[in-house]
Amino acid sequence: MNLWLVTIPVFLIATTGAILLVKRWRKSAFKFLLAINIAVMVGALALLVGALSSGPAAAAGGVEPAVAAAAAAAAAPPGAVGAALIAAAIAVAGSSIGAAFAVAYTGSAALAAMSERPEIFGRAMVVVGLAEGIAIYGLIIAIILIGKA
User: Fold this and answer.
1) Which residues in the chain show pLDDT less than 50?
2) Which of 56, 71, 97, 145 gets the most CB atoms within 10 Å of its CB?
3) Is 131 helix (H, G, I), strand (E, B) or coil?
């Protein structure tokens, strides 16, 4: 089972607990949740620093520099593949969220305009279609990134 699938119920329980905590104790709950968020952020930064500081060159230890460089070159592609996949996921997620906001605003404006003048349906749908194009651009970028990985 994937580790990320296990985190979904934990996330839902934590979110529900935070909502109930805020409903019961307003100001003290905010301070408590802020302290938890800061602690999680510090832990995440410590993990990031640890991951970035321990690379193939650090693992080689006392090995000759040429051997360490060869080991670093051999170990670089998996990291690059992972970075490309993360970048592709960010491209799709960001463009989809942007398209959702764009469609929400342009769609509601188009419906309001069509309620007054039904003959502008074609122009209104073009604007909504352009807003949906943002998600397609993100998907194209993700396909290019995955192809290069």
Assistant:
1) 58-60, 63, 76
2) 145
3) helix
